[in-house]
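With this grant's support, we have settled on a layout for protein records. A representative record follows, to show the layout.
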Amino acid sequence: MSPAVANGRPTVLLVEDEPAQREILAYNLEAGGINVVQAGDGEEALMLVAEGMPDLILLDWMLPNVSGIEVCRQIKSRTATRAVPIIMLSARTEEVDMVRGLDTGADDYMTKPYSLAELMARVQAQLRRSRPAAVGSRLEYEDIVLDGETHRVTRGGTAIKLGPTEFRLLSTFMEKPGRVLSREQLLDRVWGRDIHVDSRTVDVHVGRLRKALGQGGEGDPIRTVRGAGYALG
């Protein structure tokens, strides 16, 4: 299924083969300000992860074709995707099953039936670790401060005026300082995969962000990596 437009919000890949359960979870996640991408089996989940990394995966253990455990194992065994947090959902309540799920790489494990309120709290906790700006946290890099709740940015104590796209771009960089992000990854994170935007648009907005951050004469904190993309620092 096609992923939702990002709009700076975190994206959760929901992998659940029961349509009714998937619909309830998707509704609650979206009501909580989260974009939801849905998969009904393990093969589809792996395909969607390959197309673009979500910020978190809610993964049912019992899935057709490829089990949740195997999906988790494959995602966590790959360098490009191992950092994506996974919350495993399972009707298996035995301690040995929970240990197996966590040993496979799951970051959290919830048994069915579970409290939706508790699940949402755990989702938000994982997102605070993986995408802090998307859930209203304060980010700092050298003399740059980004407040995700008030949508304000300062550099050296001076307010920086940014448009919505430049704000999302900066927050994406500040969540992973030093990490090189390709134009395609930035398009996915900042614009969303449903939006058809030329990759050169990224260059234009990076240029605007650089200009805004350097308006006080400070150095350019964004590094261009030829043939690869951009990085903060």
Notes: The chain has two domains: 11-130, 134-232. The longest strand covers residues 11-15. Residues 11-130 form a domain with the Rossmann fold fold (CATH 3.40.50.2300).
